Known about the structure:
Shape of chain A: globular
Strand content of chain A: 35-45%
Structural class of chain A: mainly beta
Distance between the termini of chain B: 26 Å
Helix content of chain B: 25-40%
Number of helices of chain A: 1
Number of strands of chain B: 11
Shape of chain B: globular
Structural class of chain B: alpha/beta
Strand order of the largest sheet of chain A: 6-5-4-7-8
Oligomer: heterodimer
Largest sheet of chain A: 5 strands, antiparallel
Radius of gyration of chain A: 15 Å
Helix content of chain A: under 10%
Bound molecules: zinc ion
Strand order of the largest sheet of chain B: 3-2-4-7-1-8-11-10-9
Distance between the termini of chain A: 27 Å
Amino acid sequence: xxxxxxxxxxxxxxxxxxxxxxxxxxxxxxxxxxxxxxxxxxxxxxxxxxxxxxxxxxxxxxxxxxxxxxxxxxxxxxxxxxxxxxxxxxxxxxxxxxxxxxxxxxxxxxxxxxxxxxxxxxxxxxxxxxxxxxxxxx
Amino acid sequence: xxxxxxxxxxxxxxxxxxxxxxxxxxxxxxxxxxxxxxxxxxxxxxxxxxxxxxxxxxxxxxxxxxxxxxxxxxxxxxxxxxxxxxxxxxxxxxxxxxxxxxxxxxxxxxxxxxxxxxxxxxxxxxxxxxxxxxxxxxxxxxxxxxxxxxxxxxxxxxxxxxxxxxxxxxxxxxxxxxxxxxxxxxxxxxxxxxxxxxxxxxxxxxxxxxxxxxxxxxxxxxxxxxxxxxxxxxxxxxxxxxxxxxxxxxxxxxxxxxxxxxxxxxxxxxxxxxxxxxxxxxxxxxxxxxxxxxxxxxxxxxxxxxxxxxxxxxxxxxxxxxxxxxxxxxxxxxxxxxxxxxxxxxxxxxxxxxxxxxxxxxxxxxxxxxxxxxxxxxxxxxxxxxxxx
Lengths: 138, 389
Ligand SMILES: [Zn+2]
């Protein structure tokens, strides 16, 4: 279930994998979402980053357990970039957790136009046998 | 040494559109030609900043060398500056620095983009690569999607109906229809704009700027040289620049662009003026929501009250603060690297009374403002320009 260099999260990008990012992806493959926490100042990041923005110290990955969030903003993408043309229309939502951390992902089970402020739950989705991604459900 | 005063002394503009008759080379020549005809020949230009935002569109490496050579600027130092949709004004900012510092007296700033050699889906793909490639791009967040995320938040926070955004589109097309350089010079009604096909809901086709080809150019010169070259210089009175977080989810607010507010404050301070002193503005309306947010970020309206300016037609050419009376990016077009230079071109033309169609000429422009936003606000440049005659 380890992620490969070619395929991340949802789809293909050209950005290279690093050991830190691979650890994130491997956890995701086990349906565990990781945030990062600065080893110096304790600042938390979601999605995670390897270096803290404030003091450039290293961060470490820690399990992120919140699942309930509210929709902060959304868009329904009808006209997609070329690589995602076959998947349109799809919905992108920014969810805000009670802790204030936010996450950007697809909302996958909508039956109507989303509403800012509505409740969402974070879930996981197996894209293929090598790749699991996170998504929003309403 | 004090920074030298710098002015715009000449400007040129290529026809924006789906220019399959031209490439970056010909578009560049088309923009420089009126400047040459006005008497500013290659030997009078000390150095250039030549700009295009995305080399993926052409595949040409070292494009500034190609363009400099094509324009006959032999042995003139040149430079490319890139900052997405603000590439044109970033180039002007860089050139201003060199002229004001005394490195050069006269510089050409030329912005160009050729986007229609690839499909719209491919162009959308290239532009979405300006999002975070690890955390945003894989979710298919196209360039219009970033602004749709702002629009849905703005509409929810301020209870804004989509029809207000459509009215901004109607204004843009009203003026674009009168601009000979515009890509889509035709009018549109509120109903047509409101009911057009969805692109990235809540934004639809008439909320989105165009994928265009085009070029624009200006010549800037230090004060003494400027006065030699023209009786009608337009002084660069204030420059402000700002930046916002890379990931749109990390911003405190999606109802304004933080970097634009920083840039506006800096530009107003440097120029010693306030929003009430601005006679006309060219704002970055890559999407209708962007224009609405610009009214507020620039201080023309309080937060949440920008809608009053469009609903009361205060942003028309005879209103309190005319905005984008050239059609804006929506109707004139948005060839990325050319856009910011085109904004400055429009202010210069309006000051000189050369807007051609009297129904879009703004009366007595003394001070103009150009507001140029890159990507979804990661780059912002604002110029305040003053009539020097
Ligand atoms: Zn830290």
